[in-house]
């Protein structure tokens, strides 16, 4: 039974890229019946015969209507043991090129190679929307028209939602650098979609086009490739990429490290994706931790041992009255106490490292240690969040039939523009905890994580005061600096507003939201970080709220006008 790779299915795009077994060919319908491995239902393979609609002029020159009426070539896409060939039954075809003008191999009906052209990459400028779309099709069959003009044919069964493709291509299209020595020289000069930076390999994931096809590859390879930054260049500027981040000494605490932006990162951008190196239900699971640690390469082990150890107790196991110390472990575990001193130290150090650097992962119900994300410090005014790999990417991959996103991967996402050289921070505290005044926040960090917070919001009391510009309790004028009780009161009222937004509680109407914002704007200065956060929460790119068709843009505009109104009236600094 032959195995083939599904491609170009429009009605069931998620099946694209899956391997199926051919069952039989239904002559009358011109379709294959195929069998998917596992319990999936049977589906039809896409129709492979050409029809007249698939002809289209390459250069938008529509002078050859007569040719359009000609019957196009017939081919079958046959994949045998991942070896894919185009079987061509129309010998009139002269050249087969991909969307970038690069040649592909053509086989005749008997499987004999007709012609292989080893031409150079022919770069083509993308100028119009339709041209971008045209390039997104995997193959264009060029045929010399009698008059010597070139026409192109494309399989309409591979039509994609054009808007989506244009959008995707515009945003993220990159070209593989020619002349750089790398593992995939055959991709030189080709275009791909830039995926997220993979911190675990220090390489970018470059995906085939939105439907899982490299422009020219018809050899069955539809998987993304991993390429180092200099191996890719920006299609628009022609400049090589640089890694988006670097780990450096933390300017605030000398012995600590931090993650810095190497380039300016945009709001909503997936800065990187990281994979867990160690997973365990929690840090007390010594055997699990040690087993995984021992299986690592020496360099990986070294990297893990370099991570911050945090306090000399396990914060995640703290009880109401005490933290979990080495002594606690010795008395709780006879196994542990019987080990020699140096082994005990090694295990204890590992447990502390894991405890200090791991994140809980709700879907897998485990604690996971991500080596690069472990370098991200906490800030009470974070500029990034941890999240799942970008839903759009996930969708693109599923859509194209590539490996679904590794569900254990975590993404670091910028929630505001982060200038080059700036530290990237996330909040270890919950949104609610961030609404607390400084003493409470710091106490929580000390209790839960064992460190005294040195973030800019906690350290810079004056800056924090400027942000805390409130109206007085009587509602008359601005108090300028504001005091803690005042902050507590207003922040808690504002907290309701944020909670509603962030927890996706259904609001009866956008007006309700605006009314809350108006109240909040009366109590908080427009430059207050909470208000800025509120605006960001409504930002559809950063926090898309599924299933809610509230007009986000509209609401943001209204919020903005409310804020601007207050700004103008009070002479506060602008929130923009
Ligand atoms: C997950 S690690 C972060 C990276 C760490 N700085 C390093 O050198 O690997 C957590 C540790 O970093 C330090 N840390 C993170 N955020 C901090 C903050 N806002 N203030 C003080 N220390 C912080 C604490 O020592 C904490 O235990």
Number of helices: 17
- How many beta-strand elements? 27
Strand residue percentage = 15-25%
Identify the overall geometry: globular
**Largest sheet, if any?**
5 strands, antiparallel
Name the quaternary structure. single chain
Radius of gyration: 29 Å
Terminal CA distance reads 63 Å
State the strand order across the main sheet: 16-15-14-13-17
What would you call the structural class?
alpha+beta
List each distinct ligand once: S-adenosylmethionine
**Unreliable segments (pLDDT under 50, ≥5 consecutive)?**
38-170, 210-222, 391-405, 463-488, 540-550, 570-576
Helix content: 25-40%
Give the integer mean of the pLDDT values. Answer: 62
Domain SET: 243-429
Pfam families: SET
Protein name: SET domain-containing protein
Organism: Durusdinium trenchii
Description:
By secondary structure, the protein is of the alpha+beta class. Among the domains are: 156 residues, no CATH class; 62 residues, no CATH class; 111 residues, no CATH class. Helix content is 30%, strand content 20%. It contains 17 helices and 27 strands. The strands form eight sheets. Strands 16-15-14-13-17 form a five-stranded antiparallel sheet. Strands 1-2-3-4 form a four-stranded antiparallel sheet, with no helix packed on it. A four-stranded antiparallel sheet has the order 5-12-11-8, with no helix packed on it. A hairpin with a 7-residue loop joins strand 18 and strand 19. Helix 2 packs across helix 3 and helix 14 packs antiparallel against helix 15. The protein is globular and about 75 Å long. The C terminus is likely disordered. The site of S-adenosylmethionine has 20 residues, from strand 19, helix 8 and strand 24.
């Amino acid at each position: 039974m032959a195995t083939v790779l599904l491609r170009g299915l429009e009605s069931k795009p998620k099946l694209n890229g899956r391997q199926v077994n051919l069952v039989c060919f239904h002559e009358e319908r011109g379709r294959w019946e195929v069998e998917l491995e596992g319990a999936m239902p049977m589906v039809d393979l896409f129709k492979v015969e050409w029809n007249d609609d698939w002809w289209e002029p390459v250069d938008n020159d529509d002078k050859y209507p007569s040719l359009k009426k000609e019957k196009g070539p017939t081919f079958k896409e046959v994949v045998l043991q991942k070896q894919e060939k185009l079987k061509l039954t129309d010998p009139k075809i002269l050249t087969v090129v991909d969307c970038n003008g690069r040649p592909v191999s053509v086989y005749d009906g008997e499987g004999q190679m007709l012609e292989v052209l080893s031409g150079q990459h022919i770069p083509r400028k993308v100028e119009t929307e339709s041209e971008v779309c045209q390039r997104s099709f995997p193959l264009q069959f060029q045929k010399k028209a009698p008059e010597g003009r070139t026409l192109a044919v494309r399989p309409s069964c591979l039509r994609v939602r054009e808007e989506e493709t244009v959008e995707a291509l515009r945003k993220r299209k990159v070209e593989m650098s020619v002349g750089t020595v790398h593992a995939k020289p055959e991709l030189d000069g080709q275009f791909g979609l830039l995926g997220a930076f993979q911190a675990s390999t220090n390489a970018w994931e470059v995906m085939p086009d939105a439907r899982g096809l490299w422009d020219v590859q018809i050899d069955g390879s539809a998987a993304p490739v991993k390429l180092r930054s200099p191996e890719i260049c920006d299609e628009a500027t022609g400049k090589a990429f640089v890694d988006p981040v670097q780990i450096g000494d933390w300017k605030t605490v000398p012995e600590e490290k931090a993650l810095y932006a190497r380039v300016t990162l945009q709001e909503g951008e997936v800065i990187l994706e990281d994979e867990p190196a160690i997973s365990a239900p929690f840090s007390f699971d010594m055997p699990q931790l040690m087993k995984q640690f021992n299986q690592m390469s020496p360099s990986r082990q070294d990297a893990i041992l370099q991570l911050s150890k945090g306090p000399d107790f396990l914060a995640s196991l703290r009880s109401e009255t005490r933290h979990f110390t080495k002594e606690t472990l010795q008395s709780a575990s006879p196994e542990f106490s019987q080990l020699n001193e140096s082994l005990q130290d090694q295990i204890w150090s590992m447990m502390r490292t894991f405890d200090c650097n791991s994140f809980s992962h709700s879907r897998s119900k485990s604690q996971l240690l991500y080596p690069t994300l472990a370098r991200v410090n906490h800030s009470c005014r974070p500029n990034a969040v941890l999240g799942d790999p970008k839903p759009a990417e996930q969708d693109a991959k599923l859509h194209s039939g590539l490996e679904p996103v590794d569900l254990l991967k975590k993404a670091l996402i910028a929630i505001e523009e982060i200038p080059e050289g700036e530290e990237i921070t996330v909040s270890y505290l919950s949104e609610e905890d961030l609404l607390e005044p400084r003493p409470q926040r710091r106490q929580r960090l000390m209790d839960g994580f064992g460190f005294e917070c040195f973030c800019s919001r906690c350290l810079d009391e004056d800056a924090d005061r400027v942000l805390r510009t409130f109206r007085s309790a009587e509602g008359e004028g601005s108090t300028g600096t504001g005091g803690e009780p005042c902050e507590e009161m207003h922040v808690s009222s504002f907290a309701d507003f944020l909670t509603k937004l962030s927890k996706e509680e259904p609001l009866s109407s956008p007006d309700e939201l605006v009314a809350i914002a108006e109240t909040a704007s009366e109590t908080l200065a427009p430059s207050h970080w909470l208000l800025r956060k509120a605006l960001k929460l409504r930002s559809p790119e950063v926090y898309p709220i599924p299933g809610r068709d509230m007009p986000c843009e509209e609401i943001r505009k209204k919020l903005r006008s409310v804020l601007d109104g207050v700004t103008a009236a009070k002479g506060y600094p602008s929130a923009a």
